Amino acid sequence: MRKTIVIGDKNIEMEANGATAFRFKKIFAPLDLFKQFVTAPETPDEVAAQMEVSQMLAFVMAKQAEGVDMNKLNEDKFIEWLEQFDGADLLEVLDEVVDVWQSSKKTTSKPKK
C-alpha cells in the first residue's frame, strides 16, 4: 500500500508491503515490528517505546517508497531523516503511519467458492 502523509510542511510518500517488517527488523534489530503492536501500551514508558517504533516504521516505509538501497540504512540514517522534521510534526501523524502498515497486511483477494 502506498500513501502520501503530510508531516509538517512536507509530503512524505510511504509504502508498506510484505517486506516492511523484515526490513524493519534488519535495520533496527533486535526490535520486531509485529511484537510492538500486539498489545496496547499501559505505562508511559510503553507508550514512549511504541511512539519510537512508529517513527522507525515511518522511516522504513518512506525509504521503501523512495526505492533506496535498504542495505545502506541504519540508525544514523534514521536520525538524519528525523532531523528534517520540526518537533512533534511526526508524532502527530503516527496513527496514520501505523494505519498504512496495517492496511498492507489486509488481503484484497476474494475467497474462491
Q: Would you mind describing this structure in some detail?
A:
The chain is mainly alpha-helical and 113 residues long. The protein has one domain (2-104). Helices cover 49% and strands 11% of the residues. It has helices at residues 20-28, 33-36, 44-66, 75-82, 94-104; strands spanning 2-7, 10-15. It has a two-stranded antiparallel sheet with strand order 1-2.
Strand and helix layout:
Elements: E1 2-7, E2 10-15, H1 20-28, H2 33-36, H3 44-66, H4 75-82, H5 94-104
Antiparallel strand pairs: 1-2
Quick summary of this structure?
The chain has 113 residues and is mainly alpha-helical.
CA-CA gap between termini: 26 Å
| Beta content | 5-15%
The helicity comes to 40-55%
Return the average pLDDT rounded to an integer.
90
Low-confidence stretches: none
Q: Please tell me what the overall shape is.
A: globular
C-alpha Rg, in Å? 14 Å
**Number of helical runs?**
5
The domain count comes to 1
Number of strands: 2
Using brief descriptors, characterize the structure shown:
mainly alpha, 113 residues, globular, two-stranded antiparallel ribbon
